[in-house]
Amino acid sequence: MSSQQQTGSDFDRATATGPRPLIDPFARAITYLRVSVTDRCDFRCVYCMAEDMTFLPKADILSLEELDRLCSAFIAKGVRKLRLTGGEPLVRRGIMTLVASLSRHLGSGALDELTLTTNGSQLKKHAAELVAHGVKRINVSLDTLDPAKFRSVTRWGDLDKVREGIKAAQDAGLKVKINAVALKGVNEDEFPELIAWAHGEGMDLTLIEVMPLGDVGEGRLDQYLPLSMVRARLAERFTLIDLDYQTGGPARYVRVAETGGRLGFITPLTHNFCESCNRVRVTCTGTLFMCLGQEDAADLRGALRASESNDILHAAIDDAIAHKPKGHDFIIDRRHTRPALARHMSVTGG
Ligand code: SAM
Predict the structure, then answer these.
(1) Ligand 1, from 35, 91, 205, 345: best to mutate by most atoms within 8 Å of Cβ?
(2) Phi, psi of 250, rounded to the nearest 5 degrees
(3) In what helix (H) or strand (E) does residue 168 lie, and over which residues does it extend?
(4) Which terminus in the chain has less CB density within 10 A, N or C?
(5) pTM confidence score
(6) Probe residue for ligand 1, chosen from 181, 194, 332 as the CB with the greatest number of ligand atoms within 8 Å
(7) Beta-ladder partners of 236
(8) Which range, of 137-141, 223-227, 238-242, 343-347, averages the lowest pLDDT?
(9) How far is the CA of 143 from the centre of ligand 1 (A)?
(10) Residue of minimum CA distance from atom 23 in ligand 1
(11) Which of 13-22, 52-61, 118-127 has the least mean pLDDT?
C-alpha cells in the first residue's frame, strides 16, 4: 500500500469515528502510536542502556489506568495501531490488565492492531494471555544466536530463556518477527545464520542500524555497521528480491529466494524514511515524542491529570501533532560519535 493510499483511508476512518483526526503539518495522518509502558528492563543491551541506569521514580510514571486513558484518547483520534514497548513491556507489573483493557478497542473495531515489542524473556509466561486478548503478531529483539555473545550484548540476558519464549509464542499462535541490531564486530558474520534460523522457523527477520541515542558508555562508531554494506555482502550469498511489501513502517523488505523468507532493513542512517512517517511515541511518564530522532516533545501527563474530562488532553494532543517535525537526520561518523540525542532508546522504546 502506498503512503498516499494509507493516508487517505486512515483519514476517512478517523473522521468517521469521532474527534478531529491527527494530521500533521506535512499532511501525514498519525495512525500509529507506540507506548513505552516502563523505562525498566531486565536486560542492559550495550547499544541501548548504560549498565548503571537510573530509573524513574514511581510517582512520575503513568498508572495503568492513565496509560489506558491516554491510548484510548489517541484511538478516538484515529490511531489504528498500538504497540506497547519499553524498557521491557512484559516486566511492567500488571501489564496484562492493560492489554486486556485495551483489547476492547479491537472488539469495537476502533483499533486494527494491538501488538508489542519485547526482548522475549517473559514471553513463556504471557504468550497465551496475549493471544487471548487479541494480540496476533509481536516483534522479538534478538541480535545473536551465540549464547556467550548474547550474554555480552544484553549484559544480563539468557538466550535459552528467550528461545523458549519465542517457541511458546509460536505455539500459542502468535506470529513472531525477529529484530536484530547490526553491530560491528559482534554479529556481522552471523546474519546468514540468523536468516536461516528465522526463516526456517517461519519468522521474518529485520535488521536495524544502530542509532545514536543516549550515552551508553561506548563510542557509536565502534558499534555502527551500515546496512548498505550488510546488504551488499548478503547479496553475494543470497538472491535478494525487492518487495513492495510495506507495513507502514520504516523497513524495506526483500524476499530471500534461497529460504523463501522475508528480510527487512531499517536504515535510519543510510536511508532516511521520514516522508511516510505515520507514528508518534509516548513514554511511560506521558511525554509525547513527535519524532524518534528529534527532541520535540509535549507533556501529556499534565493534561491527563488536569481534568477527568478528555478535552484538555485532546487539545494537548492536537497541539503536539501540529508541531511534528518533518524528519530527523542521524549522523555517525568520525566527527559525530557523541549521542545525537541525550535520551536512551529505552525511553521511547524504538
Ligand atoms: N525491551 C524491548 C525489546 O528488547 O524489544 C522493547 C524496547 S527496545 C528499546 C526496542 C528495540 O530498540 C529493540 O529491538 C532494540 O534492539 C532496539 N534498540 C535499542 N537501542 C537502539 C539503538 N541505539 N539503535 C537501534 N536500535 C536500538
Answers:
(1) 345
(2) -80, -5
(3) helix 159-172
(4) N
(5) 0.91
(6) 181
(7) none
(8) 343-347
(9) 10
(10) 211
(11) 13-22
